[in-house]
Fold this sequence. Notes:
Largest sheet: 5 strands, antiparallel
Number of strands: 18
Number of helices: 3
Amino acid sequence: MRKAIYWVMLPVVVLACSCTRKQNNVTTEDAVSDSVAVEDRDAAQPRVEVEDSIVKTSWFDAEMADGIAQTLPNTAVKRDEKGYFELFTNLDVAASDDHPNQWSLWLKDKRTGKVVFLVQTNNDAEPQWDQMNDRNAVEVPLSEIAAGECDVVFLVPDAPGKVFLEGCPDGRNVWSYIYDFYWQSIIQLPSNEGFVECDPSHKLITLSQYRYHPEGGRYSVNMTFTYSGRYIGEETVEE
């Protein structure tokens, strides 16, 4: 059985940027050029697969198109709104002595009123810290989101289908994820102090990580990544 995968790309325009802040010998201008090359998929329409002349759309488009009605929980709280979409979280299981809170994410299309359940955090999930090597993000199973309190949740600006979420399940480290609801995939970013800022025009996100000096003592660095989790550079935060 032969399968062909087609991509529909929108044009990407890169504007000149005068910012040249150094990040590990990589300027922001260089990072912009690199990140646009890597992030072309973020500007694409949802994937279309053709298998034996049958067209298959993304998981999310299929969920939105089916006739099965989903109901937003009465306790759900709106966390963000961009374009046609509203993003909600719902506290499914309250914290206990053994586990942090368990949350679910929901999305509503304002044009149709259709509601879709996206994903749920896992109280027993383990962060994939050892796999990340302090640099690039790693993909994790949808069932392994250790986001604890879902302290920060938002629709990633200028990145259709992407949701950023993070939480502190162990009371010490903040674990950060980017979830793609079109592709039903999620990556964990190598950060343990959480979100700092987004640069939508360059499709970059910055998070903080604490580290230890060899002679003792702790310090923080701000690490910058593309929306797909590729490491761009970092700078030490002055204490």
